[in-house]
Amino acid sequence: MDNKASSAELVAQTSEAEQKRQERIAKKLRQIRDPRSMVIAPKVRDVHFLATMLYTFDKAVNNMRLNVGLRVPLASVITKRDDIAEFTKDITEYMRALGAGSYGNYYYLGGNQSVDPEQKQFLAKRHNTYVFIPSTTEGEHLANLIISLDSAFCEFKVKFPLTDLNKISEAMDHMKGLVKRCRDLVADIASLTNTRFIEPKGLATYLGEEATQRGNGKTTKKETQ
Length: 225
What we know:
Blueprint: H1 2-31, E1 38-40, H2 45-66, H3 74-100, H4 117-124, E2 130-132, H5 137-159, H6 165-193, E3 197-198, H7 203-207, E4 219-220
Parallel strand pairs: 3-4
Antiparallel strand pairs: 1-2
Helix pairs in contact: 2-5, 2-6, 3-5, 3-6
């Protein structure tokens, strides 16, 4: 009797999980109809974290712009604007390093974010992809960088010589540093604009940290599913 009940519960849980998966896919297929939509299909875990935090980044930056001079002091906006510029600059420099710098001698051309509608639909149907519709130029720019970064990092990992494992170790540490900086930047802007920010599931473990509450109370240590 207990075995039958357990089996029935398992079937119900599986059906519920599949239903939620189909609902997420259906939502993404609706979203890609928006001409502004971008599909992010990370191949590495690091970029999954960046893609997840991108939504709050875009929302917080939009809130910051809307409230400049009102609830958000102009001086704070200038500081965060410069922080964003510095962060995106560092991502670009890191990608260059992956292609022809201190991490290896491989040329990286860069990702093409202009995908055709059929490719967009194909990617959106995958459970591990993200559809992002930017509200800000900063969000769009960061999304493009994230897509290119994913390609650059994968290309480097495939081609780096096994005779020099220090390079891949250094590159992985640098990537982790970028993820941490993104988390801190998003948390700061979210706190400034009273935007809710939930750290991605597994991020604290990935960074070797204990899950802690960040921000002004709107940011929470609870992780996303």
